[in-house]
Amino acid sequence: MHIRPVATAIFVFLVCIVAACGADEKPAPAAPAPEPAIVSDSAPDPSTTPADAATPATPDSLPKGLVLALAQFVKKEGAPVPGPARLEFVYRKDGKWQTSFVEDDQSNVFHKAFYYEGPVGPRLMTLAGTAATVKTWEATDAGLEPTTEWEQDFGGKWSRMRDAEVADLYGDGEATVVVATHDQGVVVVLRPKAEGGFDVVQLDEKPDTFVHEIEIGDLDADGILEVYATPSDPNRMDGTRQHGEVVRYVPKKGEGRVVVADLGDRHAKEILVDDVDGDGRDELYVSVEGHLEGKGANKRLVDPVEILRYDADTAADAGVVIGTLQDSLSRFLTAGDIDGDGKKELVVAAFSSGLWLFRPGEDPKGSWQRELIDKDSAGFEHASILSDLDGDGVDELYVASDRHKELRRYVWNGSRLVREVIYTRPDDRSVFTWNLMPVPVEIIP
After folding, report:
1. Quick one: how far is CA 358 from the chain centroid?
2. Taking CA 253 as the corner, what is the angle to CA 248 and CA 256, rounded to the nearest 5 degrees?
3. Beta strands 198-204 and 226-232, pairing class
4. Can you give the C-alpha Rg of the chain in angstroms?
5. Which of 443, 391, 438 lies closest to 114, judged by CA?
6. Which of 303, 364, 365, 391 is close enough to 360 for a disulfide, judged by CB 3.0 to 4.6 Å?
C-alpha cells in the first residue's frame, strides 16, 4: 500500500492538532501481512451506477440531517492556527443539500455533537475540548442557544470532553449520558434532573490516561446495561508501541472498572457494541491500531489494523480477529442494514485504504467476509455513520472524506453502494471531522 505524501500545510495542521485538539499518530506505509477470507478487494467506481441497477431517488426534503463536529484551522499571519470549535449541519430541503454552522469561541474543537431529549425537552448536546465543556443547545427563533451543563479542568496538560453515549443506565426511564475525557482518565455519568441540569457521578479517574471512546450495551443479556471505554497511554506521534485496553463499568450494579480486553502493547481508539450477527446478544468489536517500526522514510507498518470480537465469555487476552486491514489507523466502526434484508453489516473506515464492508460468515466468531466499498475515501478520523435519514427502512452510509474535503452519501442500488457527494468545502480551511450524527431538522439552525 502506498501512502500519499502529506503536504506541508497538512503536516503543520497535524502537529497543531496534537497540541490543540487531541490527534496523535503520524501514519506510515504498510508491509504485507496475512489476510482473512475476502469477498472482493476490487471495488467498482462507487460514483457510477451499472445499467442494470438504478440508484433510489432521494426525496426533495428529509426529516433528518447531519451534524458534523469539527476542529478547524484558520490562517493567522499566513500560518494555520486553531480556530473556534465548529459545528456544521448538512440537510436536504427543496431538492437541494443545504448547510449551516455554529461556532463556539470558548473551545477549539467539538469532538462530538448529538441529539439529546431529556426532561426539559429536545436539545443538541456537544462535547468540546480546551476548554472542556458539555453544553446543551436549544433551538430558538434566534438560533441555537447554549447552556453549559458541565465544565472542568482535569488538572493535566489537556482538558477535553472526548466521547459520550446516551442510555437508560439505571432503568428509571431517564436519558443518562456517559462521558469520556482527556487526560486524567476521568469517566463520568451525567444523570438528568427533572428541573434541568445534571448530577455528575464520577465512575473512574486515572492519571495520564486518555479515554477515547464510550459504548453501551448488554453483552451478558441480563437486562442491565454495561458501559465500555477505551483508556490508553497518552497519544504518541510516532506510532510506536503503546499499551491499551477496553474496560467495563456497570453503574446500576455499582461495579467499577473491569478490564475486558487487554491489548498488550497495542491500543484502540474505536470500539462498537452492537448485535451485528443477529443472535439476540450484543458483541464488543475493537479496532486495534497498527504498529509502526523504523524511522523517517524507513518507517513501516509491521502490525496491521485488526478488528477483534469479544463476547460476554471471551477472556480479556483472547479476542477473535474477524478481519485485518493493511493500514495504520481505523477510527470508525458503524453497523446497520445497508440493503434492507433485515441483517446488519459492519462498515470499517480506515485512514488511507478506504471504506470496507464486513459481513459475518457462517461462523460469526471466525473470519468475516470483506468487501472494499470505496478505495478513494480517506481521513485521519474518517468519520462515518450508517443512518436511515430518509426513513425508508434501509440505512445509508455517510462519510466525511477529509482528504477530499467532501461529505459523501452511499446508497444501496440493489447490488452495491453508490456514492453521491452532498457537500464540498468551498475554501481551503483545514478541518478534522471528529464525528457526525443524525439530528432532526427541527434542531438545525
Report:
1. 17
2. 40
3. unpaired
4. 21
5. 438
6. 364
